[in-house]
Amino acid sequence: MSEHRDGNALAGPLADIFTAEATTAEVRCRACGLSTTLAQLVVYGPEPGLVGRCPGCTEYVIRVATTPSGTWLDLGGATSFHFTSTVDVPIR
């Protein structure tokens, strides 16, 4: 069985991802399977939050809402996101 750690082990890789250029990230729609860049999503909002929809089937892919207590991020409409690395990042 693999060694396990708590969720803090995800902090480094997530910090690398969330400082990357997000608009060029490739996203795959859960509903239709279309792969496109985040910049090509059709975005509605801003109230009560931003909703990024698939340009192929119009289903939601990503939702972002900022409230007084923080920011909510829903990636449930995507099967994956791929962020291209522009620097050598060690595998963790």
Strands of the largest sheet, in order across it?
Answer: 3-4-5-6
Total domain count? 1
Give the biggest beta sheet: 4 strands, antiparallel
Rounded mean pLDDT score: 88
Instruction: Calculate Rg over CA atoms.
Output: 15 Å
Shape call: globular
Structural class: mainly beta
Based on DSSP secondary structure assignment, what is the total number of beta strands?
7
Oligomer: single chain
Strand residue content: 25-35%
Query: What string, H for helix and E for strand, traces the elements in order?
Result: HEEEEEEE
State the distance separating the first and last CA atoms. 18 Å
What count of helical segments does DSSP give?
A: 1
Poorly predicted regions are: none
Helix content: under 10%
Topology diagram in text:
Layout: H1 11-18, E1 26-29, E2 35-37, E3 42-44, E4 50-53, E5 60-67, E6 70-74, E7 78-82
Antiparallel strand pairs: 1-2, 1-7, 3-4, 4-5, 5-6
